[in-house]
Amino acid sequence: MLVLYHNFLKKYQMIKKIEHLGIAVKDLNEATNTYQALLNKAPYKTETVEREGVETVFFECGESKIELLGATKEDSPIGKYLSKQKEGIHHIAFYVDDLTSEIKRLQNEGFQLLSDTPKPGADQKNIVFLHPKSNHGVLIELCEDRSQF
């Protein structure tokens, strides 16, 4: 009976895994070299998201990823973050199967979202962020594969 309940929960669990850790950095080239040496591998992808004023570098790390975030504009979200904070973990991203349903579920639970609708993000993902005030000071990103939209 316990196995059936566990399988039921697993099937309907909305958050599947930690998709990536987003790390805000001031010098993307320097940080890329550091993480390349640390992880002993090259990044598998770089991408600029013009709308957000951010350049990203992705490293695979087991099932999860490390996303380095460098501002391309001072007034971008990452640029503003780095003007107030030191370099470091910016957000934790969780992978979900159905972003729209998860948004509704979390709103019903009382979580505050930074937007009510998903938007295109890096790495072929649709994303939405939960306000840090809802998560004990941690910015949470939810993402799903863009092909699901």
What would you note in describing this structure?
By secondary structure, the chain is α+β, with helices and mostly antiparallel strands. The protein is built from four helices and eight strands. The protein has helices spanning 2-12, 28-39, 77-84, 99-108, and strands at residues 15-24, 45-49, 54-61, 64-71, 88-96, 119-120, 125-130, 140-145. It has an eight-stranded mixed sheet. A hairpin with a 2-residue loop joins strand 3 (54-61) and strand 4. The chain is globular. The model has no long low-confidence stretch (mean pLDDT 90).
- The CA-CA distance between the termini, in Å, is 35 Å
Arrangement of strands in the largest sheet = 2-3-4-1-5-8-7-6
Helix content: 25-40%
User: What is the radius of gyration?
Assistant: 16 Å
Assign the CATH architecture: Roll
Mean pLDDT: 90
How many structural domains are formed by the residues? 1
Query: What is the CATH topology classification name?
Result: 2,3-Dihydroxybiphenyl 1,2-Dioxygenase, domain 1
What is the molecular shape?
Answer: globular
- What's the CATH C level? Alpha Beta
Number of E-state strands: 8
Task: Name the CATH superfamily assignment.
Answer: 2,3-Dihydroxybiphenyl 1,2-Dioxygenase, domain 1
- Beta-strand proportion: 35-45%
Regions with pLDDT < 50 over 5+ consecutive residues? none
State the secondary-structure class.
Answer: alpha+beta
Layout of helices and strands:
Blueprint: H1 2-12, E1 15-24, H2 28-39, E2 45-49, E3 54-61, E4 64-71, H3 77-84, E5 88-96, H4 99-108, E6 119-120, E7 125-130, E8 140-145
Parallel strand pairs: 1-4, 5-8
Antiparallel strand pairs: 1-5, 2-3, 3-4, 6-7, 7-8
